[in-house]
Amino acid sequence: MATVTPDDVLSVLKRIAAPDGRGNVVSAGLVSDIAIQGGTVMFALTTSPQHVKTMEALRGAVEKAVQGIPGVDKAMVALTAERAPPQPGQPPQQPQGQRGTGVPGIKHLIAVASGKGGVGKSTTAVNLALALKSLGLKVAVLDADVYGPSIPKLFGLTGKPEPSDAAGKKMKPMTRYGVEVMSIGFLVPEDTAMIWRGPMVMSALTQLLRDTEWSEADVMVIDMPPGTGDVQLTLAQQTPLAGAVIVSTPQDLALIDARKGLNMFRKVNVPVIGIVENMSYFTCTKCGERHEIFGHGGAREEASRIGVPFLGEIPLDKEVRLRSDSGEPVVATQPDSLHTALYRDVARQVWASLEGGQLARPAPRIVVDGQ
Ligand code: ADP
């Protein structure tokens, strides 16, 4: 099979007119770097929020044209909006045409985010998802932490997703503990995603969301990449999120980072559902005493100071770590533990915030075919 080069792709793209009569999409500077992996071609088209709707048609046409190049199995083209941060008093920043989740059958998308790595964001995302499931909800998990996808490990999932149709255009999500899971970690070797630039990340994530044959779900939990850089901002901006949960440790530094996380979501008008304080305290298994290793209560105070709900504190616990790291998350495998009760409490508040208090009783939904 012929090997495709970025130049092959560019020469096809040069035949596609840019909007507003500005020459072709390449000369108008709309095309990002082109990444090619095997027969998969990935790149992004730059758009502005006002034009997301019209650009969607162009995106489809571009994807189709690239798919027609001999040797291309799959084209992944994402729209990225590059714009200055909003000024005070500006109208809402959500791109138009993105009401609803944009993912068929998924009612709410929520992000689990943190200002920095290592605070237990992924552990919280997984246990929150399982706790939402335990409330009787249908739940999916998308691992958007492309720089360090740990969701496969936390769920104890290995192998590759199967194609869901003969043409191989869509993938089936993996399922574990009754939750559907998709991660870039299933698709590329661990060190590949690390080198992706912003547009590549968006392109890959758009595909994971759109090209996965998700079942209906009440809520999809998205494990965000840690931090508040451009990639995170674009993701928060381009994914129609119903809200975000911020995970922080009680350490001051992490709290400063958590504040950055809050500001990031505020900038793009995604409601912050609340803060979870992870590794909050440690109860000694021998003496039963509570040790507040990192100080304690910082996140609660910070949450009340800035007017964001405080969703709860999860103690530091060896069992949580061991179970997380061996793919047996505590909520799924120790349903009667203190930790499970705490995560369920967080889950109840999250669901209440999404559905205005209709706990564990999702309203009947009308799902229109093809929507
Ligand atoms: P992040 O996604 O923020 O990088 P992880 O969820 O991968 O963080 O957690 C980092 C490490 O901390 C993992 O080894 C995880 O098992 C451990 N961990 C997370 N939360 C807790 C907790 N409450 N008690 C003990 N260990 C934890």
Chain-averaged pLDDT: 81
Oligomer: single chain
Unique bound compounds: adenosine-5'-diphosphate
Q: Strand percentage, roughly?
A: 15-25%
Question: Over the alpha carbons, how many angstroms does the gyration radius reach?
Answer: 21 Å
State the domain count: 2
Overall shape: globular
Major sheet summary line = 9 strands, mixed
What is the N-to-C order of secondary-structure elements (H for helix, E for strand)?
A: HEEHEEHEHEEHEHEHEEHEHHH
Helix-strand makeup class: alpha/beta
Question: How would the blueprint of this fold be written?
Answer:
Blueprint lengths: L5 H8 L21 E3 L2 E8 L4 H16 L6 E8 L24 E8 L7 H14 L4 E5 L7 H5 L18 E3 L2 E5 L14 H13 L6 E7 L6 H9 L4 E6 L3 H16 L4 E12 L6 E2 L6 H9 L3 E7 L1 H8 L4 H4 L4 H18 L16
Parallel strand pairs: 2-3, 4-8, 4-9, 5-7, 5-8, 9-10, 10-12
Antiparallel strand pairs: 1-2, 6-7, 10-11
Bound molecules: adenosine-5'-diphosphate.
The site of adenosine-5'-diphosphate (ADP) has 19 residues, from helix 3, strand 10, strand 12 and helix 9.
